[in-house]
Design goal:
There is one protein chain. By secondary structure, the chain is an alpha/beta fold. The chain has nine helices and seven strands. Helix 3 crosses helix 4 and helix 7 runs parallel beside helix 8. The radius of gyration is 17 Å and the shape is globular. It binds S-adenosyl-L-homocysteine. The site of S-adenosyl-L-homocysteine has 16 residues, from strand 2 and helix 6.
Length: about 240
């Protein structure tokens, strides 16, 4: 096997104050191999180089939830949802590393969810993760899912206000939405403020960081649910993207 992931123990330690166990490192490697295999049939990701995979899929996924990697900072038994998970990011690395979490991996594309179910979850024996096919707009109105999660993750799914409309209805009061972004500007903060207010949230913090290998700039926007989300949200399928709040 020539595609060997780097370990980067020191970088994990310096940047996240955390290191994978031997077992987690083995799971990362297996995940990488399964994604490469899956890529032959499905268009899962263009990131196939081992260093790039480590940085953009593993490190980036975990950077957003860094506080949760420590047992004392994570809610006990957090119930997490990853919206628009694609090939399982950030949700699958999160399932492997956050202590005692359960995670729901949601995507509207059946074939991606089938891959996650039949290949990733079964071969990696991830019993704390389950999948869900559907649109965030309908799942957010479903009684089984609305108000059900401690943490909602969303990466590369749409504009920030769209991400806010997809995530906040699913959260319990006091829950946290984590929006993974590349670039971020003050104007985007201003625009997002209005949407978040309508949805019963506040912008708790915005973190900027530099990725450890390619030194690119990334951001995570953290939204806290502090009030009730009006039942009008999320709006019908397609409306959040067509008419962003
Ligand atoms: N989060 C992954 C994939 C991003 S691509 C990553 O960062 O690598 C965006 C994914 O979101 C696609 O798989 C698409 O099917 C899904 N998606 C887009 N709109 C959605 C919606 N309204 N509800 C659920 N999934 C959605």
């Amino acid at each position: 096997m020539t595609n060997l992931l780097p370990e980067m123990a020191e970088i994990w330690q310096q940047t996240l104050n955390w290191q994978p166990t031997v077992q987690q490192q083995e799971q990362f490697q297996r995940l990488y191999e399964l994604i490469l295999e899956g890529n032959r049939q499905l268009n899962l990701t263009r990131i196939t180089d081992p260093q790039e995979f480590w940085e953009k899929h593993l490190w980036d996924s975990l950077r957003g939830i860094a506080p949760l990697l420590s047992e004392n900072l994570s809610p006990t038994f957090p119930n997490i949802i990853d919206i628009g998970t694609g090939a399982g990011f950030p949700g699958v690395p999160v399932a492997m590393t956050v202590p005692n979490c359960t995670i729901t991996l949601l995507d509207s594309t059946q074939k991606k969810i089938t891959f996650i179910d039949d290949i990733l979850l079964s071969k990696l024996a991830l019993t704390n993760a389950k999948t869900l096919v559907g649109r965030a707009e309908e799942i957010g109105q479903h009684p089984q899912h609305r108000l059900a999660y401690d943490i909602a993750l969303i990466r590369a799914v749409g504009a920030a206000s769209v991400c806010a409309e997809y995530t906040l209805p699913l959260l319990k009061q006091g829950g946290l939405a984590i929006i993974y972004r590349g670039n971020w500007t003050d104007d985007e903060t201003t625009a997002l403020q209005n949407a978040v207010k309508l949805l019963g949230g506040v912008i708790e913090s915005i973190e900027q960081f530099t990725t450890p290998l390619s030194h690119s700039i990334r951001h995570c926007v953290y939204l806290r649910k502090v009030a009730i989300t009006p039942i009008d949200f999320p709006r019908a399928i397609g409306v959040p993207t067509q008419k962003p709040l």
